[in-house]
Design brief:
Helices cover 43% and strands 17% of the residues. It is of the alpha/beta class. The chain has a 5-stranded parallel beta sheet with strand order 3-2-4-1-5, with helices on both faces.
Amino acid sequence: MHQSISLFTIGFTQKTAQKFFDTLVNAGVKRVIDTRLNNVSQLAGFTKRADLEYFLLKIGNIEYTHILDMAPTKDILDAYKKNNGDWEIYENKFLQLMKERQLENKVSPELLDGSCLLCSEAKPHHCHRRLVAEYLRDKWGNITICHL
């Protein structure tokens, strides 16, 4: 088994740019892995894809990558919004999706170590970045998860 992997997660809503970037830098994050389905919307503010990639590099010398396999499908997202956010249904559908995609075979421990999963939700309880982190931990068993 590989050595222990440190995996962070963060959401950008309810954070100023300063708080967001300071948090990443202070935690020693090496790479941000964007897990959003849509990362170019104006609603994303300072985390629009091209801007975020630039800011991360300039402010913290942090790499940026976008892994769509870690994002829910539009169908799953839309169903969640239409069902007034029934979290259990969403969680089950998304876990099933990661199994089907065999996410654990599409990313490497090396890529994840020191990385931070990004999505929009402010808190980790009802967000898919936590599900991604826990799914991979369940598969590999050697991941320490820290929600920033």
